[in-house]
Design brief:
Blueprint lengths: L2 H14 L12 E7 L4 E9 L5 E9 L2 H14 L4 H16 L11 H8 L8 H18 L6 E2 L4
Parallel strand pairs: 1-4
Antiparallel strand pairs: 1-2, 2-3
Helix pairs in contact: 1-2, 2-5, 3-5
Length: about 160
Amino acid sequence: MNLKELYQEIILDHGKNPRNLRKTENFNKDAKGNNPLCGDKVHIYLKLNENKKVEDISFEGQGCAISMASASIMTDLVKGKEEFEVKEIVSDFLDMIKEKDELNNDILHDDEKTKLMCLSGVKNYPMRVKCATLSWHTLTSAINNSQEEINTESN
């Protein structure tokens, strides 16, 4: 299996069987996001403990396979991380999906980086970049306690 096939398999698996697709109990931060051009909608639920560590994260929503896979992968990767690590992972992912060829953080293990890199191909399809980044921008909004809904057409 070549790398492209592996990436497609990861996206299909997370798109069809999204991880953490539920509402976190006792969440203390949340945010909503909307991609009106594709119809993607996401609601991120985040539970940070007193040390600002992600105790739990989940999402509800619907959307295309890229949007659902991205939200699923994101929730998997940031669970258990410190808030400052989450912000670095988000920033690194957004840089990679828009312009860089690879991830530059030292927080993620190689297998975790592979999961994220599977979304790198969307940079060749500008309309799909918004699908892949919606949940990530929404997570940032939740962390920052922004009450404004994320809308891909105003980013």
